[in-house]
Amino acid sequence: MWRHLSRGVRALFNRPDTDQEITDEVQHYLDSATEAHQARGLSPADARRAARLELGPTTAVREQIRDHGWENTVDTALADLRYAARRLRAAPGFTIVAGLTLGIGIGATAAIFSAFKPILFDPLPYPAAGRLMMIWENGRDGVRLPGTFGSFRTLTDRSGSFDALAVMKPWQPTVTGGDRPERLEGQAVSASYFATLGISPALGAGFPAADDRRGGARVAILNDQLWRRRFAADRSIIGGTIPLDGDPYLVVGVLPAGFENVLAPAAEIWTLLQYDLSDGRAWGHHLRTIGRLKPGVGIDQARSELASIAPDLTRAAAAAAGFFPGEFKLVRLRDEINGGVRDALWAVIGAVVLVLIIASVNVTNLLLARGTHRSGELAVRTTLGAGRGRLVRQLLTESLLVATLGGLVGMAVAMIGVRVLVAASPINLPRLSAIAVDGSVFAFGFVLTTLVGLAFGLAPAFQAAGRDLHEGLQWTSRRTVGGHGRTRGALVIAEVALALVLLISSGLLLRSLTRLLSVDAGFDPSNRLTMQIQTAGHRFATDSNTTRFFAEALDRVRRVPGVNSAGLVNQLPLSGDRDEFGAHFEAGPAEEAKTYNVFRYAVSPGFLETMAIPLRRGRLLGAADQAGAPLSALISESLARRAVPAGDPIGCRLRIGAPDGPPYTIVGVVGDVRQASLGLSDAEAVYTTAAQWRFADKAMSLVVRTPRNPAALTALVRDAVWSVDRDQAIVRVATMDDLVATSTAERRFALLLFEAFAAAALVLAAAGIYGVMSASVAERTREIGVRSALGASRRSVVAMVVREGMTLAGIGVALGLGGAIVATRAIAAMLFGVSRLDPVTYLSVTVMLASVALIACAFPAWRAARVDPATTLRAE
Amino acid sequence: MDEPNSDVIQGTLDLLILKTLSLQPLHGFGIGRRIEQISRDVFKVNPGSLLTALQRLERAGWLDAEWRQTENSRRAKYYSLTRTGRKQLEVETADWNRRVLAVGRLLKAEG
């Protein structure tokens, strides 16, 4: 083996020497044979002839000897490559167009691949990540609830399916004591959290299990970024304390640099949850639960075990005045994290693959057009003894070289494209931080390039190799459009069809977004500045201090010049906040009590006015609705319609949350507000003043209305709040317009991608039509000349060319419409307020594509009309 | 055209070359002559096949080659058997004998 290799390499690099040796050996054989014949009495001339006859043609023998060994394959390949490179250099126009076309196709595909790879293909970044599960609790009505500490403890004690289980909830501590207080994103977790993920801290011993109980020591683990950003990568921080919310926290760990927390990507700091079963929160459904299956335990096995534990849990929860909804729901963590966006991503991948196919088809067409011009050359080469296999190999080499060129351009496009994608992608795209152009992307690009090169190279190669020899030699093929004209026509039809599918898809997405943005959010977003004020520290342990702080802060903000009005609310529409309670309407004597799931808004007086949420009946809430006054509430009109379909809701009474709590009297009905998203109309809501709610919310959102640019007011408003208490964190500063835009970010992102791909497809399809019609006109110059000579008018020549081009486009459109009817199923879930078969979109896109096709035909038609019959006929 | 078939039996050229070279190092023409002589002209070796085979056997590591002066002071490529070549000869010889016996038995077999 080694010998084969080394000799081959030597032969390759010492080609002349090796060749000389073979020549010498053959020559020696010839000489010896001649001598032998002479010795038998032949004349020198006869002897030589006899020897030559025996040996056969020396060149052939030399070639035969030389052909043995792998290095000769390499040698021919290199020769093919050199030849291909020379040909491409000789046709720079073709090379550039083909390279760029493929580069865009391959680059876009590689960029999309690298952006979506972490979500669609990679496992989660943890050891044996396939064993990680998310555990939800399911009500019998199918409502999915977060887990409770009680269920977590029961599962930890009783389940044999899991190596480890962990619970978590969001935690936003404020680092105090620095120049400015900074609110951090973090998680409060059970001590088992990192062990469940399979991650150990890079520094420190991690959470001490003994402290994961009520009253345990305050401990924290930092991630690498926070450690570097805020604590200057100081290793001695382990064992030291940091001030969080006014308390010292002992730092027990720093996580490794590459750690990615998929369960809360923004989290930088972790502390212990420190619940126990006597805790009032133990049966509250607000914890997320994850588990790591034991090796060899399947998900179904674990599911049936959880089902067997569920009845006991229902009893245990009831005994502790808690509630277990009935059953567990086990989901693979990867599906939980990525599941929401997967379908949309596959649709985008489908779109980019269409673009790649169109690009390849275009290059195939270019190659076929070149093939026509080359038929003479190829015929000559065949006559001179080139085998068909050899010709195919050489043409394929050329295609692969073009593809490689495209691949190189493509990887550059991909590197830029990924950055653009990351910059443009919505922040809630999972695993955003894992997106990178790495080795696997390059490997993917390489494979893609090769496949594309083979795909678009095979058709021209076999066409060339299969062509009739005489036809090529006689140059007759120039006169009429032969079979390859049909191949190219078919390719153009395919291009138009695929482009139409893309155009219709992006048209539908565009109309969806327009529809969505024209949805009435229920409030006026313009000229509103919002921010969230988080209270933290011992001072705010009592509700009265919290209430007083917010009242004072609101008062100061209202006095800021430029502020027309201001209000506070516990949950801001379209911000991602979601605070829902049960609303129990007091029943008449003959009725059953009615309970509805509603958004609960605790507002300051003036909030609804600031948001311009319209009052439909009754009155709004005012300063008189203070603690101690009769409890008053507003309801949204959709709740009024549902709960009090007949009669006047004003004066009805309802309880919020606990069915035995104090009743509120409805004093007004207000317009519906889109809380979760513009696309969802679940707008049943109840408003009370914060003063009349039974606890003080620790975080409130401030909304300020101003006639000026709202963002310019940020510093003044923030300073007004801080003038009350310097240590309170202010986060999520955004204009209301920003919030509306962010809530549609995912749609915009998908639309942006589809629009880009559709535009590329349209340009490529137009170029395809143009190319084929130009080639067709060029090949038929003689025919057109003859027609003109026989009296065809310019107009009829133009009509002939346009008819031909538009026939191709028309067939493509017909196929594309059919394709779109099927393919738009992939984006059906991304549409809003528009059917995937929306006739307006289909029609307008078809008209647009047809116009572009017409323009693409116009130039070749114009050229055909200028064919001078005299010149053509003389050229014969 | 009733000349007896003088083609080398297919697949045996390697064996014949190895055997010939086990006696003494020879150049290409010499090997061909020696095979013809020893086989008493039963086999005529095609020069093209012979030279190609030599190239192949050398590549396989069974033969060594060196350029030397011949007795009539020409330069020629002399081939000799390597150690692995000698082993290969044993293997191929054993294989050949096995086949000959088998063919012989088949031909002798009576219905």
- The total of beta strands of chain B comes to 3
Unreliable spans of chain B are none
Name the helix and strand elements of chain B from N-terminus to C-terminus, one letter apiece: HEHHEEH
| Average pLDDT score of chain A | 85
What oligomeric assembly is this protein in? heterodimer
- Mean pLDDT across all residues of chain B, rounded? 84
How helical, in percent, are the residues of chain A? 40-55%
Instruction: List low-pLDDT spans of chain A.
Output: 475-481
Radius of gyration of chain A, Cα only, in angstroms?
38 Å
Largest beta sheet of chain B, briefly? 3 strands, antiparallel
Shape category of chain B: globular
Report on this structure.
The complex is a heterodimer of chains A (876) and B (111). Chain A is an alpha+beta fold and 876 residues long. Chain A has 25 helices and 23 strands. In chain A, α2 packs across α3 (44-55). Mean pLDDT of chain A is 85; it is low at 475-481. In chain A, strands 1, 2, 3, 6, 7, 8, 9, 10, 11 and 12 form a ten-stranded mixed beta sheet that branches. Chain A is 53% helix and 15% strand. The relative contact order of chain B is 0.16. Chain B has four helices and three strands. Chain B is 56% helix and 14% strand. At the A-B interface, α1, α2 and α4 of A face α2, α3 and β3 of B.
